[in-house]
């Protein structure tokens, strides 16, 4: 009788990936990062277990959007109080914190369940080339521009 092997928590092996966001389109970059965080490319991927990898993103201030969305894309938030609705354009968010658009795009692409917090905690975004994860020897991911 053949039994299907089911992945357990102690069997999870996590790798480190380094992604350079320079001149990359935000949405395409975020889908690739979300796929690495979920662990979709692994053979041992199961939906009820978080077996994704660590992802380090550098040069987040050099991402771009297509078709002039730099001045059209809006980020909305609400404080919960009357009159507490706020909206910011993409370029304003980039001036405040260049890491936030990538983090928000990836977070919204992850599954909405209890595993999301652990996945997003393994994402490290830096606005320039300097990062503090050289000791983990992250492997550079080749993103081809299309």
Structure description:
The chain is α/β, with parallel strands linked by helices. The protein has a domain of 95 residues: Alpha-Beta Complex (Ribosomal Protein L13p, Chain: A), CATH 3.90.1180.10. 25% of the residues lie in helices and 17% in strands. The chain contains four helices and six strands. The strands form two sheets. A four-stranded parallel β-sheet has the order 5-2-1-6. It has a two-stranded antiparallel sheet with strand order 3-4. Helix 1 crosses helix 3. The chain is globular and about 60 Å long. The termini are far apart.
Number of strands: 6
CATH topology of the domain at 14-66 and 99-140: Ribosomal Protein L13p, Chain: A
Tally the helices: what do you get? 4
The CATH homologous superfamily of the domain at 14-66 and 99-140 corresponds to Ribosomal protein L13
Helix content: 10-25%
Order of helices and strands: EHEEEHHHEE
Q: Round the mean pLDDT to the nearest integer and report it.
A: 95
Task: Give the N-to-C terminal Cα separation.
Answer: 47 Å
| Unreliable parts | none
- CATH class of the domain at 14-66 and 99-140 reads Alpha Beta
Classify the beta-strand content into a percent band.
15-25%
By oligomeric state, this entry counts as single chain
Q: In angstroms, what is the radius of gyration?
A: 17 Å
Query: Given the C-alpha coordinates, what overall shape results?
Result: globular
Strand order of the largest sheet: 5-2-1-6
Structural class: alpha/beta
Largest beta sheet, briefly?
4 strands, parallel
CATH architecture of the domain at 14-66 and 99-140: Alpha-Beta Complex
């Amino acid at each position: 009788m053949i039994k299907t092997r089911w992945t357990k928590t102690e069997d999870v092996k996590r790798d480190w990936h380094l992604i350079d966001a320079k001149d990359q389109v935000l949405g395409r970059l975020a889908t690739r990062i979300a796929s690495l965080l979920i662990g979709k490319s692994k053979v041992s991927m199961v939906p009820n277990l978080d077996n994704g990898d660590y992802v380090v993103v550098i040069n987040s201030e050099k991402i771009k959007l297509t078709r002039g969305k730099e001045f059209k894309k809006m980020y909305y938030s609400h404080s919960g109080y009357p009159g507490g609705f706020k909206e910011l354009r993409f370029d304003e968010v980039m001036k405040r914190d260049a890491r936030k658009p990538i983090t928000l795009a990836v977070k919204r692409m992850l599954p909405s369940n209890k595993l999301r917090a652990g996945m997003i905690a393994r994402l490290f975004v830096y606005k320039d080339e300097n990062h503090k994860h050289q000791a983990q020897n992250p492997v550079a991911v080749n993103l081809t521009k299309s």
